[in-house]
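Chain A, query sequence.
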Amino acid sequence: PDGWISWARYRAFLDALGSADAGYDRAEERAVLRRGLAALPERERRIVLLRYARDLSQREIALEIGISQMH
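Chain A, predicted structure.
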């Protein structure tokens, strides 16, 4: 009632203020990734998405795109 809090509560308060939001780093990574993908030519962007979003192998991507897997 006098406006004071215990040292433990004060430390917990400071720790909460200074702690990073777990979702913040992921949001930042997604924003960077989105910008990077947008900078790629359409075919390269499609290849990256087929590899990492659909988990296709090089061979499967080559068949899907219609190019040599060594291209």
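The radius of gyration is 23 Å. The first helix runs from residue 7 to 18.
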